[in-house]
Design a protein that fits this description.
This protein has 347 residues and is an alpha+beta fold. The protein is built from 9 helices and 7 strands; from the N terminus they run H-H-E-E-E-H-H-H-H-E-H-H-E-E-E-H. 36% of the residues lie in helices and 14% in strands.
Length: 347
């Protein structure tokens, strides 16, 4: 059973200074003067929403630019195990750790300070759990980030959960879209499945069953969902734990797709994976997104790896990068620091 610590309570202010209230009024006034319909990260079109992280870094075109033909998939997902119906299971256990991991958190903070540049002004959060021992390390866990394409794992989990509740297997079209969405990070395939499962409300409902408590689905597009590293570990636990609401077949199906992402998208948490490990042991999904308001990048990575023979679930969320490449470099440095922090504690 995988145990993931509950979220820490956030600090609430008891009073608000008058100056802050006046400032808030001014901000609201500006918002009401802003033309309606403008959505951040809309790839330049103020009237539509399009997530662009899966396309080439220089291409800020429409959603699905990674493979326009995948809007109406016809290929079958041969070789992929079809999910089967299973009896309802309890959500992954998210109770607090039996052991105090405060020391590991402090060790991870120290490791990250050494791994990341002092001059970088962005934000990064990381969490890791050893599935055998339950030991965890977390840094900056209270921070929320937009999900970018790691939300595609959430869409897939929602689809699988719904299929089980409806006592059916995935259709050939659903399997083709799921494969394109995870392996190629195809946007149109993601939008197709996001709409078919019921959009934001369906993701929120599924997340409640999967044990996620800090993730909010965006009403207009999956790529702007907000989440935390703790919730991303809970999502990965739902794909790896026997206590998951998802059946063993559904979990294997999802991990099988995440284990076979295209080579140019296999960065991120894989940086800390054992070189001689079975390739099926590494399962991941990445997300990368330039923000229109700042020109800076969101870069995220979640997954399962084997590090020094130990199975780890890892989540790294970050923003404020000057380029995608710079973000990937920092994310991978953070993954290695987190894995080594747990490894040192086990020795």
């Amino acid at each position: 059973m995988i145990r993931i610590r509950p979220p820490r309570p956030r600090t609430r202010l008891s009073t608000v200074p008058l100056a802050c209230l006046l400032g808030l009024v001014a901000v609201i006034a500006v918002l009401f003067m802003t033309p309606l319909g403008r959505v951040e990260d809309s790839s330049g079109d103020a009237d539509t929403v399009a997530i662009v992280d899966e396309s080439a870094a220089a291409d800020a075109g429409s959603a699905g630019s990674s493979d326009a033909a995948s809007d109406s998939p016809t290929a079958t997902a041969t070789g992929d195990p079809a999910p089967t119906t299973a009896a309802a299971a309890s959500p992954p256990d998210t109770a607090a750790q039996a052991t105090d991991d405060t020391g590991l958190d402090a060790a991870l903070d120290t490791a990250l300070a050494a791994a990341l540049p002092d001059t970088w002004s962005g934000e990064l959060s990381v969490a890791v759990i050893d599935t055998a021992t339950g030991r965890t390390a977390e840094a900056n866990g209270e921070r929320t980030y937009v999900s970018a394409s790691i939300a595609k794992v959430d869409i897939l989990a929602t689809l699988l959960l719904q299929a089980e509740q409806e006592n059916r297997s995935l259709t050939a079209a659903e399997k083709a879209s799921a494969a394109a969405m995870i392996r190629r990070s195809d946007n149109e395939a993601a939008f197709t499945l996001w709409r078919s499962v019921g959009g934001a409300s369906a993701l929120d409902a599924a997340n409640a069953e999967l044990g996620l408590v800090e993730t909010t689905a965006d009403a207009d597009t999956w790529g702007l969902d907000t989440t935390t590293v703790g919730d991303q570990l809970r999502l990965m636990a739902a794909l790896t734990s026997e206590s998951s609401p998802l059946s063993a077949a559904s979990r294997a199906y999802a991990l099988g797709l995440m284990a076979t992402v295209e080579a140019d998208q296999a960065w991120g948490v894989s940086a800390a994976a054992d070189e001689d490990a079975d390739s099926a042991g590494t399962a991941l999904k990445n997300g990368w997104l330039p923000r229109n308001t700042t020109g800076l990048w969101v870069v995220n990575s979640i997954g399962r790896i084997t590090h020094d023979g130990r199975e780890l679930l890892v989540a790294v969320l970050s923003d404020g990068h000057t380029s995608m490449a710079a973000g990937v470099s920092k994310v991978e440095a953070a993954v290695e620091a987190a894995a080594e922090t747990l490894n040192s504690a086990a020795e």
